[in-house]
Amino acid sequence: LEPSQRRLAEITEMIHTASLLHDDVIDLADTRRGVGSVNRVFGNKLAVLGGDFLLARASVCLARLRDVEVIELLSTVIEHLVKGEVMQMKTAFRDGGLDSAFAMYMRKTYYKTASLMANSCKAAASLAGHPPAVCEAAFLYGKHVGLAFQLVDDVLDFEGSLESLGKPALNDLRQGLATAPVLFAAPSNPNIVKLIQRKFEAPGDIDEACRAVSESAGVAKTRSLALEHAQLALDAVAGWAPSAERDALAGIVTRVVERKF
């Protein structure tokens, strides 16, 4: 492991943590990983400033790598985090039907979750001096791991609990967000579209959406899509020479799709 790659990992984690601090402020979250969120314990101002500080430190450390391509890759991640948050604030059905809404959901998921993993993996390969084909494979691995991770997260929002998740179950619905299980359930229950459009704000909307998901194949289809992306992640690195490192990457994929929290 090169020192520059270790520093890149630190930068990636700083960006990730900053995004969590900002997300909790936007989402009015009370808990994070089973404990009080920073915004609840210390207030919104300190939470926002803490996130800003981490992004600033990440930018300084990134500049010290003196690698223009890596700087561009990680700067793109920060841009994507903001784009994804803005997309999440929009109504899913504003510009089209279910297909359009699902495409928007997947694009938002890439921006908010998968871009960080994809571009960080590509940057790590670039710092090691690998050729473009290997760097692109690393990008695809990170992208599909990230998408699989978020899809599993969406399933756990319906199947988990405060104790297992470290945050309240059905949190996405309470935030007015239509995730994959809800979108997959919509064709069998057209009324879900109305619930999505009003962001589950009317009395009984959350219960009705939860019931519609449980009576449909929404959760099963979401898990199936997560497994498809997990397989694409494995395929991306399948051409690399067998090694402990490649096995470790495969192990991460398994942990992502089998996790319960």
UniProtKB/TrEMBL annotation:
Keywords: Isoprene biosynthesis, Magnesium, Metal-binding, Transferase
GO molecular-function terms, A-Z: metal ion binding; prenyltransferase activity
GO process terms (BP): isoprenoid biosynthetic process; ubiquinone biosynthetic process
Pfam family, one: polyprenyl_synt
Cofactor: Mg(2+)
Entry GO terms, CC: transferase complex
Signal peptide location: none
Database matches in InterPro entries: Isoprenoid_synthase_dom_sf (IPR008949), Polyprenyl_synt (IPR000092), Polyprenyl_synt_CS (IPR033749)
Taxonomic superkingdom: Eukaryota
PANTHER family: ALL TRANS-POLYPRENYL-DIPHOSPHATE SYNTHASE PDSS1, GERANYLGERANYL PYROPHOSPHATE SYNTHASE
Family of this protein: Belongs to the FPP/GGPP synthase family.
Name the UniProt record assigns to this protein: Uncharacterized protein
Lineage: Eukaryota, Sar, Stramenopiles, Bigyra, Opalozoa
